Predict the structure.
Amino acid sequence: MSDVVLITGTSSGMGLHAAVELARRGRIVVATVRDLARTDALTIAARAAGVEIDVRALDVVDHTSAARVVGEVVADHGRIDVLINNAGRGMVGTAEQLTMDQIRAQLEVNYLAPVNLTKLVLPGMREQGRGRILTVTSVGGVVGQPFADAYCGAKFAVEGFMQSLAVVAEKFGVQVGVIEPAAVASEFVANVDRPDNGGPYGALLGAYAARTAGAFANAQSATSAGVAIADAATSDEFRFRWQTSDAAAAFVGVSLADPDGERVLGFTRPWIS
């Protein structure tokens, strides 16, 4: 019996490639997109791979729609075995440049949306005694980075939520984990919200932008990151924390072995020099 996988944020990038790869591995894939008018790339990729994907509309910040979609998937397919919270959005700006509405928007899409979907699928997984919930966070969910205050804050929050939930959920056969990509070549960067001008932070923001451009020039491909997500979703062995590349693993290691926090600050200070 094939697992039923619900994955969000699949119109492009690693979400698209993860959905196709999971279908190629024989899973029943329900892939959601915010706008059904933007499914051409997913449809073409699925056709090229010779697989079928059940594509549905979902704006993850609309919790009422999320409940409806989860209910419809269970009605149509009988259950949800794997949830992959992949949808997300970036934000560049330091605290003084950000409005509270912008900060709340980051929390809505990167924290509250995956929390809500997790809550929606948990009862069914608990009752069937098995399931896997994976949330695509970021190396920015482990290493706080300059001019990523709101984004990293939301990603830290969702990692804390999922790590706290993991040991309780596993008592009912439900595995909860996070997937941490580093820079991935995708439309994510183009969709990042940015301040109109740097103001007193202009020179620092310019240095950060130059460093980030260099990182994305050598980014992991979206195809490779999608395969890594599929690996985490289908692995016979499970762990809480997954990275999509060796570079991502090295990046998060800076923080995970940093009891006083100075190692991370020393790592990121040169980014704005």
In short: The chain has nine helices and nine strands. The beta strands are 4-7, 28-33, 54-57, 82-85, 131-136, 174-180, 184-185, 220-221, 241-243. The chain has one domain: 4-272.
